[in-house]
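Have a close read of this protein, sequence plus structure tokens, and explain what the tokens say about the fold. Thanks in advance:
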Amino acid sequence: MTAFAIPAAMMVASGSIHAVVNAIVKGGRSSAADPLHARMVARGSTDGASAVVLLPAAAFVAWPHGAEHWLLASAAVHLVYLYAMIRTYALADLSAAYPVMRGSAPLLTAAISIGLFGERIATTASAGIALIGAAILTLVLGRHLDARALGWALLTGASTALYTIADARGVRAAPSPASYIVWDFVLIGSISVAMFASLTRGRLFRDLRAQWRPGAAAGVLSVATYGVALWAYALGPTAPLAALRETGMVTALVIATLFLREAVTGRRAAAVGGILAGAALILAG
């Protein structure tokens, strides 16, 4: 087993869990008819639950000395990411928006990590990253996604790439991966709840009473999906690992087909094949 196999497996698992979390956020409900408000409640409850789950662990891990600037950068970008995400889900279906958000992110992550930070990856891995991004983006073809939803989805993908870079650098600079992971979740969960409580003029807390069960489940899953991803970034190169996380789209399509009885079109089958082929190229590199 190569050194890359372990973080690669961690990323594949992380991607599958991530699709479930996004489905919960998209399906969030509230007492308000406004779909934007409902998404805010769902996301705020998810991030708040993640922070609560890991807050006790903050007493047992060191403050991430040497990685504070990356932690703060990640938190700042997450504000943009979270808001762009809920605006996207208020305007578009999950099946239309999710591929754009996830498909654009690994391509931008690769461009930044290689071009700006000089990370080196094999030619086959580069081809695999491009193939995964292209395969996911083909899922958007023929789906209704108006200009506003597309703009918010692309902003979500761009901010995903930026916080991925910040967190990958931060988790390596911290005294231990655990210290960065714990404080990252506590900080981002806190600012997420504060932002959405402000935007909803405090109604977030009233609606949390009805949303806390799915929010708690999504919060625990968020700790699992991104905690595993951050640990993987501490063990391997950013660009190929970020791309491997997007193999979760295969899980999303399998669930949609088997449990939601959605049709298996030729485009979907080709996209799944492209994602798996891209993952194989990355692993071969």
Notes: Residues 5-284 form one domain.
